[in-house]
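Subject: two folds for Thursday's group meeting

Dear M.,

Sorry for the delay on this. The cluster queue was jammed most of the week, so I only got both jobs back this morning. I'm pasting them in the order they finished. Each block is the input sequence followed by the predicted structure tokens. Could you check whether the formatting survives your parser before we put anything on slides? The first protein is the one we discussed after the seminar.
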Amino acid sequence: MSKTRIHSLSLHKDKFRDKAVGPYAALGGPFYIKKILGKSHYLIKASESFYHEVTPQCFEMTMKRSTILDTAEIKKNLEAFNAK
């Protein structure tokens, strides 16, 4: 039985900030969100130049289990982004 590889997104900061590609926002903590072709992608800032995608499952579990991050603020920022 073979596993299916899940491809994740990596964006250079210039492409991440390019509003022609799609809107973006800082959610709080290490999390950012960018909408590309109508689909939202959760990202973390991996370095000064690159943002790497986090799976939705990873993001959701982090919101449930984190004792350090301000999850209420992150959720509020996510709702505001999705309302746009």
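Second protein, same layout:
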Amino acid sequence: MFKISTMERFCAFCFYITLLCITASTWGCGSSETPLDAKTREAIDSLSTAEIRLLRVELDSQCQMARVTQMPQLVDSIKQVRLREIQEQLKTVPR
């Protein structure tokens, strides 16, 4: 079964929040009654696409860095818990 780590969820959350902010800021410009012409729509699309691409690279690098720095700590803590569980189980085994 595929499990998503907390860091991956956080990275996805940051990406979607950024995308939402970009979308909201483009919708918030100008009057809603005035339709945008083709050049304006194309400019908005180009800017948002470029910004999303940059943010994706930045978020990916942050996620990779967090994975490198936090993964050993997480694995160690899981291993320690499991070793304690094994020790407790061994205490109950008759000799």
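Two things I noticed about the second structure. Residues 11 and 60 are 8 Å apart (CA to CA). The mean pLDDT is 81.

Cheers,
T.
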